[in-house]
Amino acid sequence: MSNPVGSKSTNIRMRQFKTPRIPPPFAKQVEENLKSVRYKIAVISGKGGVGKSFISAALALALARLEYSVGLLDLDVHGPSIPKITGIRGMRPYAVNGKIEPIPLAENLRVLSLELFLEDYNKPLVWRGPLKSKAITELLYLTNWGSLDYLIFDLPPGTGDEPLSVAQLVPEPRGAIIVTTPSSLAGAVVRKAVEFCIQLDLPVLGIVENMSYFKCPVCGSIHKIFGEGAADEVAKEYGLEVIARIPVHPDLSKALDHGTLPQLILYGDANHEVVKAIIGLAEKIVEKTMHGKGEKTSIPNT
Ligand SMILES: Nc1ncnc2c1ncn2[C@@H]1O[C@H](COP(=O)(O)OP(=O)(O)OP(=O)(O)O)[C@@H](O)[C@H]1O
Ligand SMILES: [Mg+2]
Description:
Elements: H1 4-18, H2 24-33, E1 37-44, H3 52-65, E2 70-74, H4 82-86, E3 95-96, E4 99-100, E5 103-106, E6 109-113, H5 129-142, E7 148-154, H6 161-169, E8 175-180, H7 184-199, E9 204-209, E10 214-215, E11 222-223, H8 230-238, E12 242-245, H9 250-258, H10 261-267, H11 273-290
Parallel strand pairs: 1-7, 1-8, 2-6, 2-7, 8-9, 9-12
Antiparallel strand pairs: 3-4, 5-6, 10-11
Helix pairs in contact: 2-5, 3-10, 3-11, 5-6, 7-8, 9-10
Bound molecules: adenosine-5'-triphosphate and magnesium ion.
Adenosine-5'-triphosphate binds next to helix 3 and helix 9.
């Protein structure tokens, strides 16, 4: 005999994914507002603390370094870290004609985070699902991104409300980048993230293995301090590609702690181990989205 509880819980799970939570008028406004954004890319992970926010920010900076026009939107409601990483903490976005203007980090790179609207960034936002979806919807249709080649979404860990809202609301997302670390525990949760994308029809652009290795600055030897193989294993299983391996690097910890990632990735030495790896990731994304053509959106003179 079939298990009624099992079949019921499966139905509930399916309904959650199939029923759009966003009322059609808002979905239309979001579509209208994002129509000049060519490629929308979500950065996700099955588990916290693997470096999603760093990878989102670094990818946006590297794409800007390659002269694409780029937006970076932090949708981590409970633990936003993009303002700290990019050095814009405490800045206030202003509004023009009823639209929010993201903070400019460079001529061709603008950033927005929910944290920038908080009275006090040390106090947590205590929001449930519907409120989170509403805030995300409003940010998506009220922000003036202008014409962009890439809009990168930094999402909280796991497969909860925020990634679901993005997958359901953002028109034609080009895909997801899944970030993981090399440990086998991370490998098990990265499968969950891949399955999430499959259920939502969100193409996976590739897996990024962060904290992949440490290169000794004295002798140049490579140390795989967090293990190895998990990303490759999941990639092979699902026919995906590991599109970047990013080292652990003390310069990176410093840049992330002091909000100087833009100086490192946007203007730093192109031969720096981390800069090289991140530019390699950006080039891979260009190759996958623009099929090697790499044509750029011209930056309006405003
Ligand atoms: N390659 C790296 N080398 C050195 N430090 C790193 C590296 N990647 C990430 N970190 C550090 O690891 C910590 C977690 O990074 P980050 O905040 O980007 O992760 P996250 O996945 O976005 O976390 P959360 O799940 O909380 O959103 C940060 O303190 C960051 O400075
Ligand atoms: Mg984060």
